[in-house]
User: Fold this.
Amino acid sequence: MSTTKITAGQVKELRDRTGAGMMDCKKALGETDGDLDKAVELLRVRLGDKALKMGGRDATEGTIQSYIHANGKVGVLVEVNCNTDFVARNEDFQRFARDIAMHIAASPTVSYVSHEEVPEDAKQAELRVFEQQAADKPENVRARISEGKLNKWLDEVALLNQPHVNADKFAGKTIEQMRSELSGQTGENIVIRRFSRFAIGG
Assistant:
């Protein structure tokens, strides 16, 4: 198991070069000790050139979908992009966007699409709190406890790593797994671009 720490910048660079999904990039970098060229090669073997080229294409088409909770007090708008207008009008693609909107409505802590979008100063502020909380623990485990809590917090505020709230319908899949599957089905680069969650009194 590699002990090399993979940075968000490395993941972003690999995504930019290959268009592969965030989790695929992170895994490939972990398996190649952060060697970018080897990670590109690994992804080419795993996903094939076609998948990588597809992932690298600009996602300039798409849909905006909404979800309003039954009580009328929570609503979400989400923008999901793809490569062609043909897929943008596809019922599965639009349903995916609505399912994402519903998940966000049920997840009041979600503020970002991915871990990489969370500002560094926000991460550091949370880490300082977690370090203080771990101050009474043995010194040799403090850093690990703080890092663990930070990763848990990142999963709470970032969308892609979260299992969809309708676990039965989606078999416990994360939003990123759902996105990746749809990308494979449509042969297009599917990108959850942005979202806004509105709550009465929120």
User: Anything to note?
Assistant: Residues 59 and 83 are 4 Å apart (CA to CA). DSSP finds nine helices and three strands in the chain. The longest strand covers residues 74-82. The beta strands are 61-68, 74-82, 191-199.
